Structures
1.
Amino acid sequence: AQKITQTQPGMFVQEKEAVTLDCTYDTSDPSYGLFWYKQPSSGEMIFLIYQGSYDQQNATEGRYSLNFQKARKSANLVISASQLGDSAMYFCAMREVYNQGGKLIFGQGTELSVKP
Amino acid sequence: EAGVTQFPSHSVIEKGQTVTLRCDPISGHDNLYWYRRVMGKEIKFLLHFVKESKQDESGMPNNRFLAERTGGTYSTLKVQPAELEDSGVYFCASSPTGHLYEQYFGPGTRLTVT
């Protein structure tokens, strides 16, 4: 069964607007972490933001915030004030502490295109 | 502080040949992971080292793939013999000891098998 689901293969957003990239997950592990990575066309994987399952507040890192809704098992990434350089592939990932050890489980990715 | 480095950045080989990919993790990181992304598909876990020991190799596709981590430092991933379906981008990542630290990824090695 798919553990991380990103339902948006591609998204467009106008420069300076906010955009939300969806991510839902499935786990029975009570302790887990959720991550978002950015992969620009150059290919490297850039860590953006992390949310722990026990964190009470939504994580924020600059223009990135994670809308964590535990009951719904969703961890959407919100990018505010989009910039042209935000155009890239975005991956949501999960790390289950007890069930799966340290490995990351990735979603299929969402390709974001920022329009000028 | 140097990041995770991988060598080569790109490798083109013929079916049946052997290729060895190398990963140098961030100094002091005990955890080292290998992942790969086959064209158009999601990134998939291959294996996890803790220091020099294989903690989890459940993602290794078959016995044509052999990973080592000498002395708990750098790691190599050998594919022998390579098949067409092995083409993709191979990522290495490292993280310090602890459960929920983010993993720092290397730039990846793009492997093309013709």
2.
Amino acid sequence: QKEVEQDPGPLSVPEGAIVSLNCTYSNSAFQYFMWYRQYSRKGPELLMYTYSSGNKEDGRFTAQVDKSSKYISLFIRDSQPSDSATYLCAMSANQAGTALIFGKGTTLSVSS
Amino acid sequence: DSGVTQTPKHLITATGQRVTLRCSPRSGDLSVYWYQQSLDQGLQFLIQYYNGEERAKGNILERFSAQQFPDLHSELNLSSLELGDSALYFCASSVVGDQSTDTQYFGPGTRLTVL
């Protein structure tokens, strides 16, 4: 079983839709959870950062972490064509020398 | 623009060859990370340097090596290249070097094609 699982999609939605992106993980030591957005032929950029369980909201984006289920989500409200990108979840256990573990990414396409 | 620069943008080479990828971190960032991104493996952490010293190692092959120089730029050396090494190689930088709490800023990547 991979440490981090993420459905690659592609996910196609109309403009204005609510988008739900998800990752599951197996390592219960993970405490730090991030979502990165990667446009085609560009490097990933950090979108959201969450520590432990709970919700975090930033504009149209909401990140949720459910550590009991080992499940994290990113919700995008009022999706826009400019949201079309690949979304990568990433997580870390914050032990010395450990690295961020990334999901393979979900490709999202928002049509106008 | 993240402020992280990588050269070259594209590299085409043959199996068995050796290449060097270069990264300049954002101004003020002390830590540099190298990642490999391929379709089947996704984004994989290779190695991290902090202020010239190796801090963490991921799935980096023995044929690959890296270093961070006193001016904080970093180079990733890939040798005895195989077809499977074809991928996007990203460099990222951060201020402190704590992978859990630091924001990593990614460069535009170097696309390596091994023929």
